[in-house]
Write a structure and sequence with these properties.
By secondary structure, this protein is an all-alpha fold. It has three helices and no strands. Helices cover 58% and strands 0% of the residues. The N and C termini lie far apart (41 Å). This is Putative Alcohol dehydrogenase transcription factor Myb/SANT-like-containing protein 13.
Length: 90
Amino acid sequence: MFVLPSATDQGNIHWSREETMVLIEIYRQHPCLWNVKVDMYRDRDKRAAALRQITEDMNRSGTTVTTSDVKRKIESLRTQHRRELRKMQK
């Protein structure tokens, strides 16, 4: 069972490590969101549907989030990943 993310003043939520790991596992199941080589990557409707599905899966797992929360967290994780890759290249 996960603890509900806590809201902050800006409407952002705090994600626990466990919630983030669950999100990453669910995200991996939707290559249309991350694999630029699949045709569905360019299909906005499929990407939006995948984000809605991730939100539903997260909510079923006991974490209350919105689609915009999920999208914001994914963008944050991708940014962190790119930053770490740049550090390794130096």
